[in-house]
Structure formats: structure tokens, C-alpha cells
Amino acid sequence: MAREPKKSRKSSTRSDRPELVVRALWAHKQGNTESQWEDGFAVDVQSGVLAVADGASDGVFTKVWVELLLKSFIAAPLALDDMQVVEPWLFERRQKWFATIDYPNLRWSLRKRVDTSCAAATFLAFRLDEPEASPKSKEPAAPHKPSGWTAWAVGDVCLFHVRDNRLITTFPIERSSEFSYTPSVYQSKALLPTPKAQVLKGELRPGDLLLFATDALANQMMVTTESGDDAPDWDRLLAVDQDAWRQEIEFLRERGEMVNDDCTLLIVRQVPADSEVAVASEPGAAELHVDPSRPENPAPPGGTRP
Amino acid sequence: MSKGKYEKSAERANPACIVFLLDQSYSMNDGISGTPKPKIEVLEAGINRFIADLISLCEKGEEEGPRHYFDVGVIGYTTDRSDPPISIVGPVLRGEKETLTGRDLLSVPELFNDTLALEDRERTEYDDTGGLIKVKVKFPVWYRKPDPSSMGGTAMCRAIEYVKAVVEPWCALHSRSFPPVVIHLSDGEATDGDPEAAAAALKHVSTDDGELLFFNCHISESQAQSVVFPSSELMLTDERAKVLFRMSSELPESVRSRAEVKGISCAPGARGMVFNADAAQMIQLIQMGTVGAQVPTLPQHR
Q: Residue B211: pLDDT above 70?
């Protein structure tokens, strides 16, 4: 079920960015159906932009909200730590959410729910920094050079940065004990003050892995690394089959080692210099996944599914 | 001390169970807390509102309707007027389609799909300019107060035993769920024996997550001083209140802290009981049903 970006010899002239390979694995909460998976992710490989959202399961019209946030960010990434920009962005998304749910025609129980509640999601966004051109030659930077990146986090979707199969950074949570039941969220109604995103900047080198994991999974991954018993084989995630991965998730849930929650894992690798280049989609296009029932049919940002 | 972890969320794989035990004895027709409003009418509105709120909490915005996060039971009890009186105990929720009649436990989708009535009521709220406006809302009904002629004595012991027989098989089927929460609303003393033994047996029913929680509310017709969530029997002078204290479960710490978040104040060691409750305090105890089973009203996470 994981989407495997097809590999091809690079032919584009867009050689100024590191080339990324992206894999996605996801598993819905036990007891729910696949279509009730309330995480979501969106990727624009060519622009080096991606985002992962984890919809709060006690919200209402959560999938609508997750999709609005993801589509909007991928179409026009913004600095989520700049509240001057974030507040109007959220205001517009909230208006769109309310219009989309068609409040006047909701059944009594849904109206009642919307009257007192809303949707909410934690959000982790990532963008490769603009490459710097060589001041002398005016040539663009080489594609396989290290590249700067910026990540913004609201809540507890986590980024794991792995180099040479060793974990070097986690963000925004650093230890498993920091996970809580009340992470910061973007709400579809302004019931609570808008949280300011945490920011981390880093450097991506050829061969590096970036893992983006929603909270239950991230928590379990951190517990494993903290135990120190068996250093995780991070590179294994590049090849693990989705069904096998889901069985592992199920096993951990059964043993009580993982909270029963939707799980999503994005695995991003910068292609080493001597490798073929992966192209996940046409230049400028993006992959958006908020409807796992049709993962083979991604929609462009701002567009609708055919 | 209630034994257990009490950490399970209400979810479809492991739904929670809330049972109300309603005193339908004749004295429930008297006014509540010195007002002319009959206790049974306050109870009727409180139960219907609770079920509507619970259904709404299970709404996710999906076409198929609210999710099955809860099983709900509302068991009424009284006696007939024969001598000696015969206990009358059984489920009291009904729907227009008659799919609910005679069933002890009902899932949220079942309740949503069969209401007795969907009444139009008005609610006052603020408009965009800060002015007060009347807004029409739907008020679903599943419980109607009984006819006074069918209301007799207080068969409390028999009723508690009945609930035990309802929740035991539920726990066997839902061993990984949050344990059942039983909320007993009454205005008097048992006329069929000592309820403490029945309460003790009920509280031993458990799931893997903990022992059943039994909360008791004594509804007052006078304006006597109320006792809300006491933490020690020494705080009580009334013998009936002491009995209620011993019958009631101690609030597990996880439940107590969630109640505090919802603005329901209760000290460590507090029992789930209210004595001489007025209407507001009775509603507060009813709300403890969902506080126990972890369903926040504002989206947090997970």
C-alpha cells in the first residue's frame, strides 16, 4: 500500500535542489475502518516541501480540516512561527472549513457537536531551504550537496533525523516522557489561542533519512531508542513492506507497547550522489493523502480528485 | 478505594458503558429543593439532555451517523401498590419505532436512530453584535416520566441487583473497556432492605481497567444543606448520607482530575455522591458519566 515513487534517470533542468525519495506508511486505529484514518500528509518532492497532520480523534469534521491545512500549506508554504502570517491563514482556513461542512443542513446531533466543538490537528511542516547559487559562477548549487532545511511543529508529530543509520535529532519532542494528552493543535474554530509553531533548522546530507511520525508511533520509536537495548535499524524502513509494518504495529498494540491510534510514517531520503534519482510526481505537482481509500489517486494542491 | 487504572478511552473497539438507575417512586412527584418543579421532571429533562449530549459527542461528521463509543442503559424502579408490594424494575427508554423497548443496554447509534420525539425548543444565545437572540434547536426525547398512578415504593435493593445482572455480561464481553459507570438517582431510602450489601456486590464487577464505578445522588425536596463529593464519612452527620457514602465509589484519580478540568470540584479521596442535591448538583452528577469515560468536549488529541 505504500506509495513508491518511481525511479528514473534525472532529466529535469531543476538540478538546484537535493533529490528526495519519499515513502509513506500508515495504519488506521484499531476498531476504525481505513477511511476513518484521520492523519494526513502532503508532499511536493520537486519543491522539497511536505507536511504531516494528525487529526484529533475527538474532533468533528476532522478530515476536512486536515485536508484544508495540508493542501493550503503545500500550495503556499508559510513560516508557521510568524503569527502575523499564521493568524490570517488560519482565519481563512476556518471560514472554508465552516463552509465545507454545510452547517445549515446538518442533522441535530452534528449541529450540536459543531456548536460546542470543532476539528483540531497537530501539524508538522518541512521545507528545504532555497539553494544558494555560487557567487562566482552564478551556477546553481550541485544537487547532491548538503542542503539546509526548516521544520515547524505545532503539537507532537515528530521529525527524526538519521545519518549513517544513527539518530541525530528528534523534533519537537526530544524524550518519550514529553508526550501528553494535550499537545498544541490548530483548531477549526478559535476556541483556544493559536499556538506558535516551534522551529528547527538543520542540514540534509546525501544519504540522510528524515522520518516524520505521528505521535503514537513517534512515542514508541523514542521509547525503543531510549531503552538502548537494540539500536533501531532505521534504514530498514526504506524497504519494509506496508503489510509487514502494519503487523508490527498491531503486535505492539496488542502487547500494550503502543497506544491504539492512527499511525503515519513518512520516510524521506536524500538520494546519494551516485544513485538514480527518484521523481515522485511531475515538477510542481504534489502528492496529498488524506483519503487512504484512494491512495493511488492523489490530488494536486487546491484541486479535487478526478 | 476503587481498584483499577481507569485509563481506557471510550472507543469503538472498546466502548464504555453508562447506566442510570432511576427512582420512580411516588415521592419523586414532589418539588425539588423547595421549588414546585417535580423531581421526576428535572430527572426526565436531565436524562434526555444527557443522552443527546452523548450522541453528539460521538459525532465525527460522518454520513453513517454517530459512532458506537457508548452503551447506555436507563433502568427505572419502583413497586406496585399491593401488600406486600412487588418490585417493578426494568429499562425505560423508548423510541417511536419501538426498537428500544425492553432492552437494558442500547448503543449510541441505536439511540440516535429511534427517538420518541424530536421536539422544537428555543435557546437564547448571543448574535454577532452581542445581542441576545432566540435560536430554535431540536430536543430529542427517549424518556418520559411515568404516570403517577404507576409510581409506588422504592425497590432500591432489587434495582441494584438488576443492574449487576445487566453489567456483568457486558464486562465479560468488554474486558478491555473502561469499567461501567452506574449513576443512581433517588430521593429516598430503600423500602426493600439494606442497599449497602447490594452496592458492595455491584462495585466488585470489573473490567481489566478497573472496578465498576457506582455514583449516588440523593435528590432533595427541601433546601437543606447539600453534601457534594465528600471525601470522609466524618464530614457527614445524617445517617442516610453515611449510607450513601459507603455505597458510593471513590473517584479514581484519573476521573477526579478530569472532573476538575470540567469545572467539577472534588477533593482527593472524594466519593461519587451528592446528598440533598438541587437540580444543578444532580445534573453535575449525571455529567460524571462521561467524565469517567474520557470524552473531552473540546478536541485535544488521540
A: yes
Nearest to B138 by CA among B20, B42, B41, B53: B53
What's the mean pLDDT in B125-137? 81
Counted across chains A and B, CB pairs separated by less than 8 A come out at 99
The pLDDT assigned to A130 comes to: 79
Is B123 at the interface with chain A, CB within 8 A?
Answer: no
Side chain identity at A283, as an amino acid letter? P
Q: For all residues of chain A together, what is the average pLDDT?
A: 82
ipTM score assigned to the predicted complex = 0.87
Q: Which chain A residues have a beta carbon less than 8 Å from that of B299? A: 56, 58-60, 62, 117-120, 185, 187
pLDDT tens for B133-190 read 888 888 999 999 999 999 999 999 999 999 999 999 999 999 999 999 999 999 888 8
Residue B176 CB-half CA count within 13 A? 11
Query: Which chain A residue has its CA at the smallest distance from B301's CA?
Result: A56
Cβ atoms A242, A1 nearer than 8 A: yes
Which residue has 519494509 as its cell numbers? A240
Q: Contact, A69 vs A51, CB < 8 A?
A: yes
DSSP state of A46: T
Q: Is the pLDDT of residue A114 over 50?
A: yes
Q: Is B137 on the interface with A (CB under 8 A)?
A: yes
Whether B12 and A32 lie within 8 Å, measured CB to CB: yes
Task: Judge whether B113 is closer than 8 Å to chain A, CB to CB.
Answer: no
Q: Which residue has the cell 427517538?
A: B115
Q: A202 with A210: CB under 8 angstroms?
A: no
Q: Is residue A41 within 8 Å of residue A123, measured between CB atoms?
A: no
Regarding beta strands A186-187 and A166-171, do their DSSP bridges make them parallel or antiparallel, or are they unpaired?
Answer: unpaired
Cα–Cα dist A212/A32, whole Å: 22
DSSP character string of chain B: ---B---PPP-SSS-EEEEEEEE--GGGGSBSTTSSSBHHHHHHHHHHHHHHHHHHHT--S-TT-S---EEEEEEEEEE-SSSS--EEEEE----TTSSSTT-S-EEHHHHHH--SEEEEEEEEEE-TTS-EEEEEEEEEE---PPPGGG-----HHHHHHHHHHHHHHHHHH-TTSPPPEEEEEESS--SSS-HHHHHHHHHT-EETTEEPEEEEEEE-SS-PPPEES-S-GGG---HHHHHHHHHSPBPPHHHHHHHHHTT----TT-BSEEEEE-HHHHHHHHHHHHHHTT--SS----
Q: Which residues from chain B sit within 8 angstroms of residue A116, using beta carbons?
A: 56, 297
For A37-55, the pLDDT digits (tens) are 999 999 999 899 999 999 9
Does A100 touch chain B if contact means CB atoms closer than 8 Å?
A: no
Residue type, B119: E
What is the band of B291 on the pLDDT scale with cuts at 50, 70, 90?
low
A100: closest chain B residue by CA = B61
What's the whole-model pTM score? 0.79
Digit-coded pLDDT (tens) for A219-256: 999 998 998 776 778 888 888 889 999 999 999 999 98
- Asked if A122 is an interface residue toward chain B (Cβ–Cβ < 8 A), one would say yes
Cβ within 8 Å of residue A98, ≥6 positions away: A188
Q: Which of B181, B187, B264, B240 minimizes the C-alpha distance to B6? A: B181
Q: How confident is the model at residue A293 (pLDDT cuts 50, 70, 90)?
A: very low
